[in-house]
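In this supplementary section we document a worked example of the pipeline. Step one takes a protein sequence of length 648 as its only input; no multiple sequence alignment statistics are reported here. Step two produces a three-dimensional model, which step three serialises into structure tokens for compact storage. The input and output of this example are shown verbatim.
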Amino acid sequence: METTFPRLLLQHAAQRPEAAAMREKEYGIWQTLRWADLATLVEHLACGLHAAGLARGEHMVVIGANRPRLYATVLAAQSLGAIPVPLYQDAAAAECVFPLTNAEVRFAVVEDQEQVDKLLEIRGQCPQLQAIWYDDPRGLRNYDEPGLGALDALAEAGAAEAAAQPGFFRAQVDAVQPDDVAAMFFTSGTTGNPKGVMHTHRTLLDRARAGADFDRLTEREEVLAYLPPAWVGQNIFSYAQWLACGYVVNCPESAATVTIDLKEIGPTYYFAPPRVFEGLLTSVMIRMEDAAAPKRRLFHACMALARRVGPALMDRKPVSAWDRLLYKAGDLLVYGPLRNALGFSRVRVAYTAGEAIGPDLFTFYRSIGINLKQLYGSTETAVFVCLQPDDQARPDTVGVPIQGVEVKVADNGEILVRSPGLLKGYYKNPQATAEVLTNDGWYHTSDAGFIDAQGHLKIIDRVKDVGRLKGGAHDGAMFAPKYVENKLKFFPHIKEVVAYGDGREQVCVLVNIDFDAVGNWAERRNLPYAGYTDLAQKPEVYELIRDCVEKVNADLAADDKLAGSQVSRFLVLHKELDADDGELTRTNKVRRGYIADKYQVLVDALYGGKSEQYVETQVKFEDGRTGKVSATLKIMDAKIFAPVGAAA
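The serialised model returned by step three reads:
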């Protein structure tokens, strides 16, 4: 049945008025918002926004973390036929200028003082910005700015409007059509200005329902909403599917309490990028290294069994009665308590996407009984393109095309997608729209890959990033930087990697260590250090990273196509790559070209055969100040292995 987000809200409120729609943790206590109360709040906010002048088809910016009243604001805007535009809450003020001016935004709803300050800072560059409403009033008591007001005041004004015009809200909701634009998401802008991706109620809800049908989601699911609302993945899991299924969305108190909140809520449906799963595993391994020797031995013995038996049990493959019995004992002693410690005791379906996940990391979670799967999609496809069935989850694929999706591979290896969830277009950018959408409805993903014999899609890298080595022993060999980077990032001691090699004789990488994991490793070895830069340049740390690099090289040697992508030389960077310094996107994707320019002196040193190189880098602190970090970085060679095929 054709519908829209506001109609689904009213449907839930009519059919299940007392059921929980959302929960928010405030001062350590979970507060519940029922569907009936949410519908009333949305009506009041919608009437308030209408009275303030928000028009049908107009854009309204929303900035903040996952908060029930911000979700209600999004629904209120959609009820009027307006278009909510979520922006990243950790974006610098300057990053908000283009979206605000491009979308001609007059109204903004933000979470707190931090976001208010950000918009007031750039107001001179965005003269059309008339009104800013804030949810959390802390720190804003003495602000006296034209157009600045509390969301409470907006809702109160709206309540009066609703009482005066009782049928107005319902009439507005009925006027919204499935093919109207429901939301606009700005892309990361890795090359040039970000693009506004327009999605309709139909495209977002079609993909939300397809994903829900695939995993048999119901209104009984519990979800923890902790990722940025400006990211389309978060929007699908905690907004589109929430309204499509009617399950409960839980909002953490803050970013610092997410791990505790995860354990308290015990979600049944969970989504996180690989980096979150990496961080959780790193914290587990750090704790195990600190445990007593008998506990460590028990843990490692049980994990060896889990790696051998667990994935087969998850995939419903035959396992001997003895192994089943041993696994049950392991579940009682280790796997069950571990799932509980991670907050995954009740997880029925867990997904990861955005980046490739390391095979060992993927296997670890499945081996302890967590149904972790991969999916493939993008902002432009409303996320759901390919999903992994429960018994066909493999680390090297991203699943099979789901309901309504067609996938084909172009002659150059690019993946093309046709789906009911494709974007309506890029806002004010018909040229960019024409570049990605063909006349017969195929979307150019810019990803390189292929469909294997089992019908699963495999992603190699971005088409533009897949290169060739030039000269040397591997002249003409394929180079897939992201594939190499992701293999290295599996190791808990490595947080980020940037690989280079296209058009060169060999592959070299820049490495970011994981400060927590390596710091813990150093402390257990009584290795003193004075901060990140000092720790990163320790000879012992370089040996640790070289061991990781050489293990990856041994793996790559076994792959006919990628044996030439083995890492010849590496260095450990003196600072963490940071979105505030322009080195990562807001979704934590490496901006490889920008980094190559910024650290040209280091790339030249790697390829110039130097053993060390001095570098000085400007950094931006959280309070907006800038400073410099300098160091002399060591450069190390790594062992290259003969291709396995050649050795045979």
